[in-house]
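User: Before I run my own analysis I want an independent prediction to cross-check against. Here's the chain; please return only the structure tokens and, at the end, one sentence I can use as a sanity check.
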Amino acid sequence: MGAMDADSGRNLPYRVATLLYCFDPADRVLLLERLQEPNRGLWSPPGGKLQMDYGESPFACAIREAKEELAIELMPSQLHLTGIVSERAYQDESHWLMFLFEINPRLPVAPPAHREGQFQFHEKGLLETLAIPKTDRDQIWPLFWQHRGGFFSAHCQCRSNGDQEWFLESSLPADHTSAREK
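Assistant: Structure tokens:
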């Protein structure tokens, strides 16, 4: 069942996904160079689509995706829901609702290559040099870094001409005196 796209007067499918923000002991972020759409050939956090037909929760999806893609077993208490991002009419193909989870245990090594692509750790300062999706570069990564340890909710209205209009709907930045930043 799709949500109504008021700009075009047609229904687009709604997709729900989780993204996993994983770090190594040096605080480098784990990214996946995707072999499949969406974002084929680009670097993005691992994750996947929620199994809505089974009533899967976002936390259960994150735990399942961590096991499938990263070969790690997690408990809900090891996940921090950092953000929720909705994108309306992404690439004029679908609407997305994404739950962004930071995995609290640090990964000592990158997981082996997976059917979705290859994994590699990257330093925060080098993300600007990578081929990453435009919405990630312009909005999602800055919001993630600003709210790491806290929470945000944002909405993006994607236009057919490639323009985007972003709305920050909720912002609860983390206490910047946390142990992570000391």
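Sanity check: Confidence is low (pLDDT under 50) at residues 1-6, 177-182.
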